Amino acid sequence: MAALQAVHVCDVPNLDQVPENAALALCYSRFRAGVNGEETCKCKIPKFLVMGHRGSGMNMLQSSDPRMKSIKENSLLSFNEAAKFPIDFVEFDVQGAIVENRLTELTLAEFLSHGPQKVPGTVGKPLFRRLKDGRIFEWKVEKDAPLCTLEEAFQNVDRSLGFNIELKFDDLVVYTEDELSRILKAILKVVFEHAKGRGVVFSSFQPDAARLIRKLQSTYPVYFLTNGGSEIYTDVRRNSLDTAIKLCLDNGLHGIVSEVKAVFRNPGAVARIKESKLSLITYGQLNNVPEVVYMQYLMGIEGVIVDLVKEISETISDVTRVEEGEEDSLYGDNGKTQAKAKPQFSSDELSFLMKLIPELMVQP
User: Fold this and answer.
1) Torsions phi, psi of 116, nearest 5?
2) 122 in helix, strand or coil?
3) Which Gene3D superfamilies does its entry note (predicted)?
């Protein structure tokens, strides 16, 4: 999670001011540049987005898969590792508060004092992660890295990568509109000062945060994050894809980022989302299965957030190159150049995949 340095609200600039090169940043991204009749991007854009989850993949400390414990998530190291592969964006968490210069229960200095330190010879405090089931793991990975601020991410991450900034808020806290506004204005101040043409999109599970970040600025796309009913919340706007569509349409949001299981449980929602002129991106562990990702590509879903960045990005890159008529420089036993074949599924195989995916969903 990137930290947000505290600022005074009076320092926040005019939030509707478009920073230099912002149009270029939106053009190269997959996301629509406007809603409600606004002109959209006309330049060439990727047909299918691949985003690195928290950089080159989230850390699942309980997993037996070493790839899930390779590089510290939400770190400059992880972001730049993801940039080595053919992806468009990295997704990462930003959480901050202004009034007392606190990040969740920690000051900024306390937050940055955990884990590896930037100053040589300085030992940081250990980090732990509590899972939803109550288990606690010490946060140990193969390649560790210091925590970073949002400003540092803009300054030090490969400029070819766009940022999907997830606005993180506590599900158990009831925020006033003034509290949300102060936090979001501080984040926007950093983005407007440091984006410098980089593609940026905002997303949040917090419905009012998504609504407000759209209201506060008209430069960067805003997406509503939802698990589509996999968990039930007191806020009914979070409990289905249909309520997510309504939230987006009511507030001029650009699209939905849904847990992939919700989409396969309710595939008809894909058509309703597209008919509403909204984009649809998915996230979730099933997105680490190439066949599942390819199925979404065929369904017209516009992109995926993945942990296995190398494997999924290369799979999608192969598919899109073949569709565009490009050949890979591969050589067979006869020494002649051969093109990688696009995966071909018969109607029976597609039907089998659609039946298989729900079976995968029941796995922990």
Assistant:
1) -55, 145
2) coil
3) Phosphatidylinositol (PI) phosphodiesterase
Extract the runs of DSSP E, i.e. beta strands, from the chain.
Answer: 2-3, 49-53, 89-95, 102-103, 106-107, 128-130, 136-138, 162-167, 200-204, 222-226, 255-259, 279-283, 303-306, 330-331, 337-338
E-strand stretches of 284-343: 303-306, 330-331, 337-338
Angle, alpha carbons 267-269-270 (nearest 5°): 75
| Full-model pTM | 0.79
The single-letter DSSP state of residue 141 is -
For 141-183, what is each residue's pLDDT tens digit? 889 888 899 999 999 999 999 999 999 998 888 999 999 999 9
- Displacement of CA 45 from its chain's centroid (Å): 18
Q: Residues 254-287: pLDDT tens digits?
A: 999 999 999 999 999 999 999 999 999 999 999 9
Amino acid at 190: V
Is residue 205 within 8 Å of 216, Cβ to Cβ? no
